[in-house]
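[step 3/7] fold_predict: job queued, chain A
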Amino acid sequence: MGKEKAVLFGLDDSEFARHAALETGRLVKGSKDIRLTLFHGTPAADASLWSRVGIQQTQEIEKIQAKWDSEAEKIPEKARELLLESGFDPQRLSIVVDKRYSDPAEVMLKWAEANEADTVAVGRWGQKTVSRQIIGSVTYKLSQLADKLALWVVDPRICSHNVLLGLIGAPISRRVVDYTIRYFGHLKSSRFTLFHVIPPVPPQYWNFEGTATPGAQEAQPPIARWQQEYMDSVKAAAEDAKKKLIEAGIPEQNVLFKFQPQKSGIARDIIRELEEGDHGILVVGRKGFKDIREFGLGSKANKLLLAGRAFVVCLVS
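[step 4/7] structure written:
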């Protein structure tokens, strides 16, 4: 069975999280077959402390726990009200409250797997994020563990619904394009930019016999051949991606190519393009060419996740 087009949004009792959920709803409400589930997990009240404050009767403990649970159920309802006010279809909106959880990130991943959802989402910061942190602890844990799902890290201050597709490695780039069509193909008026940063000439060519050292003006045959083969492969991948986007209904004039030589570093060049190019959504693979199993997130994706501000980072497995 194919996984449902669904976004599971993890929510805590913070204004930032509610508005991140609202922005997520605005992003997907134009699609008629994407469901949005608001998830809130609440830990059990700490019973070990009750005896210290004189609460020992079972009935008293049950009343406190019932009150605790009732307050937990109100948290996603606040976000739901915001979404309905924005025009989100109530038939595609649901709420899950998990009581007595031990770890919100793990509970969200288990729920997504059990319900065959392929996307989890969360705000960049949460209620317990301290000022010195650049990302919330639950958000960071999800970024490391959600290796079989897509993860959206949402900053509600996003400036637009224009999409930047980071093309890094050929296999993952194809999955990035397919996922973009699946979840963002309804954004017909948005601009979709296929972006690739061309890396420097690999070290093995620097001192090739008969060639100059790095920085030489003359392009030697081995280097020229590598550059030509590299660009041919990138252009072929971009042409294939453009064809898929157009076939999915994106107007051809809204699909753009942008290739540029590396300036400050691949991740920093992508961040600069996001900030200067009026893009509000970044879709990129979790890992690029170096699919190292020991790490849950590739180095470039990790840098993009930590440095990103005022847009949605979508990490595709």
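[step 5/7] annotate
Helices lie at 15-28, 58-85, 104-114, 137-145, 170-184, 221-247, 266-276, 299-307.
The radius of gyration is 23 Å.
exit 0
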